[in-house]
């Protein structure tokens, strides 16, 4: 039963000290309504974890789809866990695409970046069937390691260009990502073995002409330090890229994404800031 008690349980789980994953989303997704969108499934390439969910608002919309890349330290996560993100964004009138991608140790960089780029290409080729209209522009959005992937796709355009994607990137929304990737970190080393900093760090790939960017980070985030957002913002500003930065006191790594869900929006202003940013995208 979808009860207030279940919402309280979710609140406790998402505010627990040391919570580093969002498996409490099983409860969160259960308590949220699902009648505001239609859900489609597609397979964008052969092999495991090459499937994606497409959420379409019930009302017709001319707004660009948002490609959401979930986090999980490149080691865990599933598209279904983040239905609450799609519920929030379709409520604003945006189609939402959430692709699965291959994980470490099955693969290493750049396989998961390639997977998301392949999902974008598949969506463009099959846009009429999946979206009901051609894909002319899209927005990238991600959290944690998914924010790193989204930021790298936005700053290093060769991934989509090599696939012949012609749709225009209209904006980037990145939550709590490691944009200045610490290549000496024991968690990062096996995923990005002998990586070239110029290739794997979004802060090094910023260039003029990028679309508007929204960066969100919690000041209480001990999982990915806010310094990553500050450094990325500085690089974007120096390149003349329109960027908005929101740093939230007392907000941690999980709360910043969990608070997109309607029952948890008291945890941080992230939902309102995302909404305001989306309305500003031309």
Automatic annotation (TrEMBL):
Domain of life: Bacteria
One Pfam family linked to the record: Peptidase_S9
Domain Peptidase S9 prolyl oligopeptidase catalytic: from-to ranges: 198-254
BD-FAE-like domain: residues covered: 52-158
Keywords (A to Z) from UniProt: Hydrolase
Entry-linked PANTHER family: AB HYDROLASE SUPERFAMILY PROTEIN C4A8.06C (PTHR48081), KYNURENINE FORMAMIDASE (PTHR48081:SF33)
Name this protein carries in UniProt: Alpha/beta hydrolase
